Amino acid sequence: MKKINLSSIFFRSIFVLVFFICQNIIAQMLPTSSLKSLGKESDSGIKGPSYAELVRYFSTLPQKYPEQVQLFNYGMTPKKRPLLALRIAYPQRFLVTRSSVGPAILITGATHGNEYLNIEDRLPEWFAAQAPKNHTLDSYFKTGGVIYIIPIFNPDGYDTRRRENSRGIDLNRDYTVKQANYVGFKEIETQLFRDFLQNILQKDNKRLSLTIDYHCCIGAALYPWSYRGAPELPANFLALFQDFGSVFKNIMGQQFRVGTTPKILGYSAIGTSKDYFYENYQALSFTYEGEVDEENQKFDLHTQMLTQFVAKIQSLRFRQINR
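RESULT FIELD:
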């Protein structure tokens, strides 16, 4: 009978144990984009075209849809990449009403540079192309509605596949929230955006009604407040957020979650865009935590969802609900 080497077995067992402990530590240290290779679920988006390519593409849209699309360069990032916003609306001669203040919808993407979803950059052309053929969109634009889209809010982070901007700052923690005694707008991207939004809303005579900030990838729609200890939303606002939240669930599936950051994610986040938009504009403001669309299979779901949101904003407007 072969003699069993207990010492060898002991050291092999120790080696296997250390190996699995090290693998777990490495999995936590690696960037989220590398976790798939270790059997972990990634929590970051996909790598899209270079930002320079997107800039060239966005620049073609006003020429392709001159009646509906305007492109604005509202500044430069610390790494000298242009900050771009697209405005989709009808010219004055197409409008059927001259209301005093029209509704505005704001859509932003890639605030976290590594959470590009292959959706937000396609939306401006979709809105422009579909508006004349889609009764809901056509009615919204004809009655003075406007849609602002910033597909890549954080170009420096987007091009380098990192969450933060080039200075290592999370831009979705850089908004002033007075109720939380939190002072933001310390980064050039958020400062320039704040000023651009204020100015264009005033110039266009629009009221910010709905905002959606595209993120990745947990399957949830988050609404204010984002931090623990915040007061409950007023009943009329809570009902509206839940009503819009039902659209997310109906389109994305009943497993899709809707609620606040502390309730859904279990942590507190101070300085988010949705809290700022709600506090300063009384907008229905959401952070959308979606899934990547590498095969272009989910884009239709988003256009269905956004069309329903446009219809709801139009309905609220004509019902003249005092929010």
